[in-house]
Amino acid sequence: MSALENRVPPLLVAGLIAVLMGLSGTKLPGFELAWTARLTFALPILLLGLGVCLAGVLSFRRARTTVNPLQPQQASALVEAGIYRYSRNPMYLGFAIILAAWALVLASPLTLLGVVAFVLYMNRFQIPAEEWALETLFGESFARYRARVRRWL
């Protein structure tokens, strides 16, 4: 087990990456695009990301299970309904979409590497620990769910 495995809240990871994207966006080559045009492109993507996150949280709330990603062993239900029919990690997918919207606002294509970094981090340090806990708790039910629904999309 790594020192980072299931230790840093995913929202904090996304926030730190967003800050790094913002700092690097001023130094990296970009394209000239008016602020209003950037917002016109980024706003629908931002709203999509927020909607995906919210749908994940609401599904957990309906199932009356924990939303805390650092305590997956406290899950009281395996959520397979709602947005969880399409993604095993919609909240993380939503964060990635929000980071993509931020990259559009920054108008620097290289800042999209922040989205890649987020996905790689989650795939290495967060999701495997969660999946192990869920498999321990829900056994064959989780194995069938994992076989049926993709990790991201």
What would your notes on this structure say?
64% of the residues lie in helices and 0% in strands. It contains 4 helices and no strands. It has helices spanning 10-25, 35-63, 90-106, 113-148. The model has no long low-confidence stretch (mean pLDDT 95). With 153 residues, it is mostly helical. The longest helix has 36 residues, at 113-148.
Brief digest:
The protein has 153 residues and is an all-alpha fold. It has helices at 10-25, 35-63, 90-106, 113-148. The chain is built from 4 helices and no strands.
Per the principal axes of the C-alpha atoms, what is the gross shape?
Answer: elongated
- What is the number of domains? 1
Number of strands: 0
- The portion of residues assigned to helices is 55-70%
Structural class: mainly alpha
User: Uncertain regions: pLDDT < 50 for 5+ in a row?
Assistant: none
Mean pLDDT across the residues is: 95
What is the CA-based Rg, rounded?
A: 17 Å
Task: Specify the biggest β-sheet.
Answer: none
User: Beta-strand percentage?
Assistant: under 5%
Q: Ends: how far apart?
A: 26 Å
Q: Order of SSEs, N→C? A: HHHH
Number of helices: 4
